[in-house]
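Data follows
____________
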Amino acid sequence: MPDFCAALGCSNQRNANTKQRGITFHRFPKDKVKRQLWKRALKRRDFEPNDRSVVCSCHFKAEDFDRTGQTTRIREGVIPSVFLFTRHLGKEHTATRTSRTSQKAAEEPPQVQAVEQTSDHQYALDPVQVKKRLNEAREKLEELRRDLRNAKDRERRHKKTVKSLLEDLKHKHMLSEELQQRLDDILLG
């Protein structure tokens, strides 16, 4: 069963498209007090969140997120606060954001398009692509470390073999004094 954002008027659904756009979905807190605060913030009459109810990341401020791990999490004690309430709820069109830039963004409908790289510079990072490239880089790094370890092992084996052969040649007196000195310098140097 798909997860839809519980915010009134929000049509975001958990799917590949919203994931690609960087929209994350967050379940209501299990703690009754926090759950009640989230429910009150949504301002939906007769709405009772269940265990699968979610709110999308569009209803949180940027500083509400903890993006330090592999998954995007909501910081402790954060309540969804970015909504556009309409007149039928008895309120004028208000946004909870206060800066001019945020108010301007709230007035203009969001125009989200798939980002296509048409120039040499792409300043907006696509989180899915970044994660994919990071995983590829980690795999390549691990492969190179394995190759380096194998090369060092081969080098050690070859040095041991050469040293053993030289010892045999010394014991059989098949090396001149000068050649023996030069080989010792190379092997010890």
